[in-house]
Each structure stands twice: as C-alpha cells, then as structure tokens.
Amino acid sequence: VDIQDKMGEKKVLALAMFIVAYTLAITTFASSQIPSTCNGDNGLLTYCGLYLINNVPNPSRDCCIAAKSVFQRAMSDKTGQGIRDLCNCLRVAGPSLGFHQDKEARLPGACGIKTSFSMELCVHGPLTLNQNKN
C-alpha cells in the first residue's frame, strides 16, 4: 500500500466523521433551543426531530414512546390547558426547529396514538393564551 492510498483513506474517513458530526448537530436539539412554552414536551421534540424535520419517513420507536407520554399527559388535563400548551409548543417551537407542520399533524397517527382533539387545528390554529396563571 503506498502513501497516496493511505492519504486517500484518511481523507475519506475525515469526511465521513464530519458528516456524522454535522448530522448529529443539526438533528439533536439542545434544551436551550426548546421554548419555555414546551415545558415537559422536550422528549417529543428531541426524539421526534428527525421525523418532524422530514429526514426520515417514519417516527422511531423512541419518538413514539415520547410522543405517547406527551399526548397522554396533555389529554389527561381535564381543563384542556394541557392540549392548549402542547399545541402552542408545536406552533412556537416547530418553525424555529425546522419542523414540517404536516409531519406534526400526522405524528399521532404514525405512532398509533388516538387523540381527543384535531391535530390539524392544533398545528395550524391560532395561538392560545395560557389560561393557568398559577
């Protein structure tokens, strides 16, 4: 093996490492990037990022586990504030994180989650004010 082959291998390896690092950097969201309106929704935003930015056709198992937890918590709030908070989170965080609204709307169905509200209205509707002033 001559020196030029080894140099070529090193360049290919360096390029591959750069691509992996870049992919991780753009698809892993730091907690500082997640707005305060998303209190408790970090798992959904983090684990579902690849699906929601349209990099993969289907949500991962971890995404669906996180999404199920977030949706169940939101729907268990009998005042409806949990759903309003989740919808506001998606509307505020989604654009800044590069999420596609159609993917946000399809996420529950893609994960087999039955919702008690319209995800189309949730994602595309107007922002609502937080009703809890605690």
UniProtKB/TrEMBL annotation:
<dbReference type="Pfam" id="PF14368">
    <property type="entry name" value="LTP_2"/>
</dbReference>
<dbReference type="InterPro" id="IPR016140">
    <property type="entry name" value="Bifunc_inhib/LTP/seed_store"/>
</dbReference>
<dbReference type="GO" id="GO:0008289">
    <property type="term" value="F:lipid binding"/>
</dbReference>
<feature type="domain" description="Bifunctional inhibitor/plant lipid transfer protein/seed storage helical">
    <location>
        <begin position="23"/>
        <end position="119"/>
    </location>
</feature>
<keyword id="KW-0812">Transmembrane</keyword>
<keyword id="KW-1015">Disulfide bond</keyword>
<comment type="similarity">
    <text>Belongs to the plant LTP family.</text>
</comment>
<keyword id="KW-1133">Transmembrane helix</keyword>
<feature type="transmembrane region" description="Helical">
    <location>
        <begin position="12"/>
        <end position="30"/>
    </location>
</feature>
<dbReference type="InterPro" id="IPR036312">
    <property type="entry name" value="Bifun_inhib/LTP/seed_sf"/>
</dbReference>
<dbReference type="GO" id="GO:0006869">
    <property type="term" value="P:lipid transport"/>
</dbReference>
<dbReference type="InterPro" id="IPR000528">
    <property type="entry name" value="Plant_nsLTP"/>
</dbReference>
<keyword id="KW-0472">Membrane</keyword>
<protein>
    <submittedName>
        <fullName>Non-specific lipid-transfer protein AP10</fullName>
    </submittedName>
</protein>
